[in-house]
């Protein structure tokens, strides 16, 4: 009798390793539903149907995946070692949708002189100790706003991990800690994910501020006077 031994190739083993994470995400999503159910089985099934109508299992699994992946993200203050990443990440998205403008070169070529030395701040998102996202708080002196939230960029390879949200939240928390009352930003409506993020952060559309950017077609601001720190 001839026996055979089967084994997985490296690609197959890699797939299994990735599926383990998906199993975990599904289990966490199901447990979150179970935690909300307080009735017997049949009543619980009806409750599950209601909860799944409100938010599908697929969406819940996706949220668990984002939470798991974003747990490894650290938000740190800018250091000179991150200068190249600050410029490259921003130049990438700007060049993809628009063109680099004079004010872009000023801030990206000299972030210390243009942002930090004038009372601003730069935050960097690290994933596995690699910079994958950045944003800046630029000090404003227009009498209406304290900081401009600007130069937000996330590496395409790291998108979907809530890094934009983590950066935006950390930036607004920092501004609030410094006693700021209002934060301003400029963007373009073609950047729909970014606009959605700004709305989630509490920004509302305003108008009337002069802008140095040709690409700007929307201005937004948020009042953080009574901000509650959201953290993660």
Please give the count of helices: 8
Strand content is 15-25%
Strand order of the largest sheet: 1-2-3-4-5-7-6
Largest sheet: 7 strands, mixed
N- and C-termini, Cα separation: 60 Å
Structural class: alpha+beta
Overall shape: it is globular
Helix content: 40-55%
Rg: 22 Å
**Count of extended strands:** 7
Q: Unreliable stretches, pLDDT < 50, 5 or more residues?
A: none
What is the H-and-E element order?
A: HHHEHHHEEEHEHEE
Average predicted confidence as pLDDT: 88
Output the keywords.
7-stranded mixed beta sheet, 232 residues, alpha+beta
Account of the protein in words:
The chain is globular and about 60 Å long. The chain contains 8 helices and 7 strands. It has a 7-stranded mixed β-sheet with strand order 1-2-3-4-5-7-6. The model has no long low-confidence stretch (mean pLDDT 88). The chain is an alpha+beta fold and 232 residues long. α1 crosses α3. It has helices at residues 10-36, 41-54, 57-70, 83-97, 102-109, 111-114, 163-177, 192-200, and strands at residues 73-77, 121-127, 130-139, 147-154, 182-187, 204-206, 218-223. The termini are far apart.
Please specify the SSE layout and strand pairing:
Layout: H1 10-36, H2 41-54, H3 57-70, E1 73-77, H4 83-97, H5 102-109, H6 111-114, E2 121-127, E3 130-139, E4 147-154, H7 163-177, E5 182-187, H8 192-200, E6 204-206, E7 218-223
Parallel strand pairs: 4-5
Antiparallel strand pairs: 1-2, 2-3, 3-4, 5-7, 6-7
Helix pairs in contact: 1-3
């Amino acid at each position: 009798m001839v026996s055979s031994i089967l084994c997985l190739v490296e690609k197959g083993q890699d797939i299994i390793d990735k599926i383990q994470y998906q199993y975990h995400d599904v289990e966490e999503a199901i447990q979150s539903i179970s935690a909300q159910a307080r009735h017997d089985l049949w009543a619980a099934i009806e409750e599950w149907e209601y909860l799944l109508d409100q938010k599908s299992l697929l969406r819940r699994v996706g949220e668990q995946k984002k939470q798991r992946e974003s747990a490894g993200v650290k938000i740190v203050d800018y250091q000179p070692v991150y200068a190249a990443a600050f410029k490259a990440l921003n130049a990438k998205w700007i060049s993809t949708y628009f063109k680099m403008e004079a004010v872009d070169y000023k801030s990206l070529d000299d972030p210390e002189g243009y942002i930090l030395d004038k009372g601003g701040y730069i935050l960097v998102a690290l994933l596995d100790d690699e910079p994958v996202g950045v944003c800046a708080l630029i000090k404003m002196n227009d009498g209406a706003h304290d900081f401009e939230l600007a130069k937000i960029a996330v590496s395409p390879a790291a998108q979907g991990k809530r890094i934009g949200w983590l950066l935006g939240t950390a930036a607004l928390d920092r501004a609030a800690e410094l006693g700021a009352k209002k934060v301003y930003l400029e963007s373009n409506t073609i950047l729909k994910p970014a606009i959605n993020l700004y709305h989630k952060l509490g920004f509302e559309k305003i108008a009337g501020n002069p802008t140095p950017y040709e690409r700007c077609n929307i201005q937004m601001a948020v009042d953080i006077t009574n901000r509650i720190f959201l953290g993660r």
